[in-house]
Amino acid sequence: MVLSLFHSPETELALVAEEYHKAAKLLIEKGVTNDLAAYPIVYLYRHALELSIKSVLILGGEVRIVPVVDPLKHGHKLLPLLTQLEQLFGAQYARHYKELEEIVKEFDEVDPENQAFRYTFKRNRNPSMEPGFAFSVARMAKVLDPVLERLSGGWATHTWAVWLELPLTLTPMKWGCATSHAF
Description:
Shape: globular
Strand content: under 5%
Largest sheet: none
Structural class: mainly alpha
Order of helices and strands: HHHHHH
Helix content: 40-55%
């Protein structure tokens, strides 16, 4: 295997995001859906979303669509990226932005630091998830698959607006659970 194929980490970011997405889908397709398997599956989806959003922002900055502050400065947080993403989408694509914003906010509610599905506990040794937290991996995949495919496709063709032009109805994940979270 050869890494850094294009000698351009910014270009490869979107491609790596696609690989995280493919890995998550492969786990689901292979029937790896026991309760503990949700941790790596959700982590892979969440990380694919993070890298995809960051790559779109980097492209937007490179082609000077909008001034972009380095999206990597926020660590793994998605919520701080929304302001720049909204500027990038502009008024013309406000509906798409709002739908994506809803998904990001759902992730942020449950996993703001991108740690809850990486570790079973926090630094203070409390559980990373509330006891009884439940959701549908299949529902999450059904919502996120088209989003990730459009985001990565936009970068790969160097026309981030392509995916915005395509008809796409995103629905909030609303995965439901045994606790009060909407995630």
